[in-house]
Amino acid sequence: MSYLKGLAFASIILGAAALDAEEITSKYFGNDAAWYRDRIPLFESSSSDIQDVYYYRWNVFRAHQRDLGAEGYISTEFLNDVSWQVQPWALLIDAANFHLREGRWCRDRRFKEDYANFLYGPNGNPYQFSESMADGVWQGYLVDGVADDATAHLDAMQDVFKGWNTTAMSTGGYDTAKFLYWIQPLTDATEYTIASIDASGGSDGFTGGNAFRPSINSYQYANALAISNLAKLKGDTDVADSYQKQAEAIKQTVQDTLWNSTFEHFIDRFKVDNEHVKYWDFIRGRELVGYVPWTHDLPDNTEEYAQAWKHLLDSEKFAGKKGLRTNEPSYEYYMKQYRYEGDSRECQWNGPAWPYQITQVLTALGNLLDHYNTTSLVTKTDYTNLLLQYAQLHHNPDQDGALNLEEDYDPETGRPIVGLARSPHYFHSGFVDLVLSGFVGLRARPDDTLEINSLADPASITYFRAERIPYHGHDIAIQWDAKGTHYGTTGLIIEIDNKVVSKSPILTRLTVPLPRQSPPPTRRPIAVSIQLNSTLPPKASVSVPNADTEKVHAAIDGRVWFFPEPSIANGWDTPAGNGSEVWFEIDFTSATNTASAELAFFADDTQGFDVPDTYSIQTRSGDSWTEVEGVVYGDLVANGITSVLWDAVDVERVRVLFVPKEGVKVRLVEFKVFRS
Ligand SMILES: *[C@@H]1O[C@H](CO)[C@@H](O)[C@H](O)[C@H]1NC(C)=O
Ligand SMILES: *[C@@H]1O[C@H](CO)[C@@H](O)[C@H](O)[C@H]1NC(C)=O
Ligand SMILES: *[C@@H]1O[C@H](CO)[C@@H](O)[C@H](O)[C@H]1NC(C)=O
Ligand SMILES: *[C@@H]1O[C@H](CO)[C@@H](O)[C@H](O)[C@H]1NC(C)=O
Ligand SMILES: *[C@@H]1O[C@H](CO)[C@@H](O)[C@H](O)[C@H]1NC(C)=O
After folding, report:
1. N or C: which end of the chain has fewer CB within 10 A?
2. Hey, what's the signal peptide range on this chain (predicted)?
């Protein structure tokens, strides 16, 4: 605290206003602030919606970090288990590019590094969905500048890339006659597109509808470029040249064959050939996916291709009142609902607004505004307005405007369409990346240059400041104050490691030379308590008879969040307190080194949960339980982390004991035990 105050004082002397990390993280994260304090860049803006959602999205990021124990962390798409995830990890690679692009701004590099190791390791599953994982790793490198971490995956990236060249998969692959990749829309994580609905004659569209899509081909373009760039870093010119050529070939073919000049848009062509649709015919309408080529900088900088952007803001085309439509109202089956879970509508891509694709389009628009210059059809004002509209979509009108991002939305009303039990705080999109690389404008680069080009609209955004942004081993701050009334200095200011290095009276592009340095080393404590499979050790048990086995197991399954929605309750609940002591035990089944623990307790007045008054930790090696030696008990924290340390000891079992408050339940979200 006093150290931080000292820093703030120092920067006032330097003429810059620093944000108060302590105050901001406690405002947004309550008792869980400690997790965020040193991990996230701070951000404030005259647009409070964008600011609030920025912090909410870090909460979503944190909640979706699943600790796998020895395998480190991965990011999940759903908080709850879903039947189509890869077990036991709960892996779904379709969201990986978003996860990596969000994670690249986390000051704790562990999350994106562990995740990349997992995605390219023996337990990954690279063909479950279309993917741009190599691009995600490359985007991470652009921010942290650590070559060795990114190039470590070069061989695996090439293997995965080659795998997409197959003609043997039924859900995606390469067409050797057309030199293009194709994908089943469901395997593109976008069921019920024009291709899949029309291939069924309008009767369905969940599966089928294989098509040459702008998405998969742009992803492979981006993956090829990422591989080429990483190979260059490693000095492997053969691989670099080969993948550079493949990227160029994909780009040329996409432009030559997926650009439909009648629609002035990149659209699918059918791979499927049946009684309803013909191989190689174009689909009959525009889809939002037609902007994905710009997400990955594929199209040439020409006036012709730029025409696609005039559809974006047209209320008869993509622009819904509350969100971007995935295809246009002119399509015969626009918004026709085909699939339900019970009475609830299921996921479809024939009109609904999807944060997933809104993110891709905003990234694409950011690229267009930053380094394409052949159109003024869209502007920074549009970027700012669309980002704001997207921010507002995070507020759930069915929950009094609470921040709770669900799967997809009615583009006219902004109400969730798919807000099922599995859907709260859904993580298949980005926002932090849009704020930092777009709105604030840190355009991450491979060379030793810091480049800032904010896409905020200076007419409506009177101030913003982002600081503690990790970049090439430095801390960057970027500040804008239109009138000088908020921070005391008018204009744009760039700081590197707390020193002002560049200024401009207007919101314009600035570049500063910046030699890279190594970021701080990553700490990787390994939780020995974690078990993903409730039938295998370590095993959890409790003193309360007939407790739900899966709920008990949930307290050692590596998932921590404190969201209050009952459908995503996470952990084991005690009965209401009656004065008797309860315990929660982890049986390692063999001697295991232990030295500390983190307890996550949920609290919610209206649901009747609180932390206990006191707790203790006991271990057992032989016959009897004893309190750990040298123990230092941290204060009990509700909806945050309670930390305990003890003298390292090898034990077979460890347990936490506590007495729930009278009439009140305790929910143990997670009991993590670490070795020394
Ligand atoms: C859990 O482990 C059991 C026993 O090894 C195995 O049969 C089961 O498939 C595993 N479950 C998951 C979800 O991996
Ligand atoms: C994929 O197939 C294309 C067309 O045959 C070829 O040019 C390319 O080299 C292949 N890529 C890999 C990695 O095998
Ligand atoms: C664009 O696609 C439509 C089919 O949806 C087709 O009728 C039209 O000919 C295509 N335009 C061009 C220039 O190929
Ligand atoms: C776009 O930028 C390029 C490269 O800086 C420049 O040569 C060209 O004249 C610009 N075109 C327009 C229309 O401004
Ligand atoms: C008191 O609570 C404990 C643990 O929750 C339970 O096992 C026990 O049956 C309760 N006792 C009474 C008298 O209700």
Report:
1. N
2. 1-18
Question: Does ligand 2 have an atom closer than 6 angstroms to the CB of 161?
Answer: yes
* Residue 69 DSSP SS3: helix
CA atoms within 13 A on the CB side of 255: 17
Residue 636 corresponds to which tokens in the numbers above?
A: 């009990």
In the chain, % helix, strand, coil (3-state, to 5) comes to 30, 25, 45
Counting Cβ atoms within 10 Å, is residue 49 exposed (0-12), middle (13-18) or buried (19+)?
middle
pLDDT for res 4: 36
- Helix locations, 164-313, DSSP H: 194-198, 214-234, 237-257, 292-295, 303-306
**Domains of the chain (ranges, CATH numbers):** 2-38+440-513 (no CATH), 53-434 (1.50.10.10), 539-674 (2.60.120.260)
302 lines ligand 4 (CB under 6 A): no
Closest ligand to Cα 582: 5
At residue 244, the pLDDT reads 98
Which tens digit of pLDDT belongs to each residue from 527-577?
A: 999 999 999 999 999 999 999 999 999 999 999 999 999 999 999 999 999
Nearest to 118 by CA among 77, 144, 153, 83: 153
Phi, psi dihedral angles at 354 (to 5 degrees): -115, 120
d(CA 93, CA 124): 8
Question: At residue 676, what is the residue type?
Answer: S
- Give the pLDDT of residue 5: 37
Q: How many CB atoms within 10 Å of residue 519?
A: 18
CB atoms within 10 A of CB 620: 15
- Sign for the CA dihedral angle at 285, 291, 296, 302 comes to positive
Contacts of 175 (CB under 8 A, 6+ apart): 167, 181, 182, 212, 271
Rounded Cα distance, 91 and 71, in Å = 13
The answer to whether 414 and 322 are in contact (CB under 8 A) is yes
Q: What is the pLDDT of residue 94?
A: 98
CA 430 to chain centre: 5
Predicted structure pTM score: 0.96
Q: Distances in Å between the alpha carbon of 191 and those of 80, 109, 197, 492, 601? A: 21, 33, 9, 44, 38
Task: Report helix, strand or coil for 463.
Answer: strand
Using 70 as the pLDDT threshold, list the residues of the chain that sit under it. Answer: 1-17
pLDDT reported for residue 191: 98
Give me 191's structure tokens: 């069921």
Ligand 3 centroid – CA 285 distance (Å):
9
CA distance linking residue 253 with residue 45, whole number of Å: 42
Contacts of 650 (CB under 8 A, 6+ apart): 591, 592, 593, 594, 621
How far is the centre of ligand 2, averaged over its atoms, from the C-alpha of 187 (Å)? Answer: 21
Please, which residues have CB within 8 angstroms of residue 235's CB and are 6 or more apart in sequence?
none
Among protein residues, the one with the nearest Cα to ligand 1's atom 7 is: 535
Nearest CA to ligand 3 atom 8: 262
CB 94 within 8 A of CB 171: no
Q: Which of 128, 124, 267 is CA-nearest to residue 137?
A: 124
